[in-house]
Amino acid sequence: MVEIREAETAEIKAVAATMARAFDDSPVTQWIMPTDRLRPIALRAFFGAAAIDAHRHGKVWVAIEAGAVIGASVWLPPRLYPPTPKRERATLFPIVRLAPIAPFALMRALKYQNGVGRRHLKDEHWYLGTLGVEPAFQGRGIGGQLIQPGIASAEEEGMPCYLETEKIRNLPFYGRYGFKVTEEFIPTPDGPPIWAMTRSV
Asked: Tell me, what CATH number does 66's domain have?
């Protein structure tokens, strides 16, 4: 039996590890960090920082089975994206610490993130920053369960939802929950494409 609930502080590290495994095959993460040995380290740092920020300022919902985190969704409420300079520094610090072992990857990541941020929806919205499920548990409807609390929160406030995805195969999944593609773009000339999707009020 899978339980969906808000994450506890002690579970954020497990959320980061789960997201790292879920996004290991992402076109973006493989482009940014092509080295298999280093990619899990970088992804845990990135998703850990994002999850800590959302746990403090937004919402992190987790899927729990047999006491373990097997999936999570990370949401930011309206007016919390882009982050304040203070939040941005806190989020970047654990990632920048990786510069000595992967300086080129760090530059790619920052450049790509800036490109994505420039195209971010300007209207107020609930932002689904990340949704991921452990590879062994994918295809069981857990992602659908994890997306629902954020959608419900947005509906209560009469707000749209917004997300970006780098996998074209994700488009039908999000489409089932009312999201529509609003833009396809390439954040950096040499990087992979991304799809922006919005769920209207």
From this structure: 3.40.630.30
